[in-house]
Amino acid sequence: MNLAYIQHGEWGGPYHTAMADGVSIGPAPRNPYIGGYGAKIPTQCCVLYRGHWRRVYAACYSNQSSLYVRIKGVDTLVSLEMDQ
Fold this sequence. Notes:
The protein is mainly beta. The chain has one domain (3-81). The protein has no helices and seven strands. Strands 2-1-7-6-5-4-3 form a seven-stranded antiparallel β-sheet, with no helix packed on it.
């Protein structure tokens, strides 16, 4: 079962964690960055939260990336737990 947790709060915490209503996996849009690194890399995942499907984006500047969604214009952290 695929789960997503959305962490609300200012960067650095404290965070309020809420579970998303659903997770969808589909084809990912093309990466707009030639080098593969960037601030808004679209992933193949979407989360259902408060009645809206939201694309999960990755901010990747090194070998580690942070996943987030945009909620009311604010980048909000997402933690995904996916079945293999």
